[in-house]
Amino acid sequence: MNSFCFHGELFEYRAEALDALSAGGFSYFESFGSIDLTHDSFGLEVSEIADETTALSMQRILRARFPGWHSYVFEDQEEYTSCRWWVRIHRDSESSSE
User: Strand 85-90's sheet: what is its strand order?
Assistant: First the structure.
């Protein structure tokens, strides 16, 4: 059984990500819906991005801010939402159970 990990410092990284995206011309609630913490992989997830081009631009900004972290862009397959792109960036392996 995997135990829940909590990394309080992710709140600071979330603020840094928000600042970096803002400096890149993206605004909260207009360009994306939220930045969530992913404690299990020591990372962040930017959600509700309107299109792939914007998501890829955000990914570049976040990779520059957090060099060495893993990142990817994916599309949410749920049909109920029109904002379907997400960016996930994380330091640790996604299968980490520490």
Answer: 34-38, 43-49, 85-90, 70-75
Question: Are the C-beta atoms of 36 and 47 separated by less than 8 Å?
Answer: yes
Element (H, E) at 76: none
Q: Which of the four pLDDT bands, split at 50, 70 and 90, describes residue 96?
A: very low
Per residue in 39-94, pLDDT (tens digit) is: 999 999 999 998 999 999 999 999 999 999 999 999 876 666 565 899 999 999 76
Residue (of 72, 49, 31) closest to 23 by Cα position: 31
- Helix, strand, or coil (residue 49): strand
Tokens 């996604």 label which residue?
94
Task: Give the dihedral sign, CA 8/9/14/19.
Answer: positive
What is the C-alpha to C-alpha distance for residues 39 and 30, in angstroms, rounded to an integer?
25
Rg (CA), the chain: 13
Q: What is the pLDDT of residue 61?
A: 98
